[in-house]
Design a protein that fits this description.
Helix content: 10-25%
Number of helices: 4
CATH superfamily: START domain
Structural class: alpha+beta
Number of strands: 9
Distance between the termini: 31 Å
CATH architecture: 2-Layer Sandwich
Strand order of the largest sheet: 1-2-3-9-8-7-6
Oligomer: single chain
Strand content: 35-45%
Radius of gyration: 15 Å
CATH topology: Alpha-D-Glucose-1,6-Bisphosphate, Chain A, domain 4
CATH class: Alpha Beta
Order of helices and strands: EEEHHEEEEEEHH
C-alpha cells in the first residue's frame, strides 16, 4: 500500500482482474462527504479528475462523465447500489470486460472523522488485451481523495 500524506493507495492485479483502491480519513461527517459525492452539477468545481459529469447520481440511473486522461471519450456507468451516507456502486461494461467502482463511508471510532474508501475493479476475459491501455489509477485516485478531503474539510460543520 502506497501512502501520500494520509491517503493510502492499494493495487492488485491478476490475469483477469485488476484493482485499485484509495482510502483516507476526512474530518467531516459522512453526510457532508455524501453530499459532495452525489452532487453531479457541483462536482467539477472540486474534483480535478473530471472534465464533465451529468445525470443524477441515484440508484438505477446512468451518469455520463469525461476525464482528462481520455479526452473526447464519455464513460457512462450505472449506479447499481446506493445506501445514503454509507456506500454506492457504479458499474459499466459487460461480462467480457467491465468495471465496478465502489464508494464506502465509515465513521471513525472517535466520531470526529469519516473513513472514505473508493475501489475500482476491472475484470473479464478481455482484460489482458485492454489492461495496457488503462491509466495508472493510483495517482488519479490519490488526487480524487485529496480533492474530496480538501472540499469536505473546508465546508462549515
Amino acid at each position: 500500500m502506497a501512502q501520500a500524506g494520509s491517503i493510502q493507495v492499494r493495487r492488485s492485479r491478476s490475469t483477469f482482474r485488476t484493482e485499485c483502491s484509495v482510502a483516507t480519513d476526512i474530518q467531516a461527517p459522512a453526510e457532508r462527504i455524501w453530499s459532495l459525492l452525489t452532487d453531479a452539477p457541483g462536482m467539477t468545481a472540486w474534483n480535478s479528475t473530471l472534465t464533465s459529469i451529468e445525470g443524477p447520481i441515484e440508484l438505477g440511473r446512468t451518469v455520463k462523465m469525461q476525464v482528462p486522461e481520455a479526452p473526447g471519450r464519455t464513460f457512462a456507468p450505472k449506479v447499481t447500489r446506493f445506501e445514503a451516507n454509507r456506500m454506492m456502486e457504479w458499474r459499466q461494461g459487460n461480462p467480457l470486460f467491465g468495471g465496478v467502482r465502489t464508494y464506502v463511508l465509515t465513521p471513525t471510532q472517535d466520531g470526529r472523522s469519516t473513513r472514505f474508501e473508493m475501489t475500482e475493479v476491472f475484470s473479464g476475459p478481455m482484460l489482458p488485451m485492454i489492461v495496457g491501455r488503462l491509466p495508472d489509477f493510483g495517482p488519479i485516485f490519490q488526487r480524487y481523495a485529496a480533492d474530496l478531503k480538501g472540499r469536505a474539510q473546508l465546508e462549515p460543520s
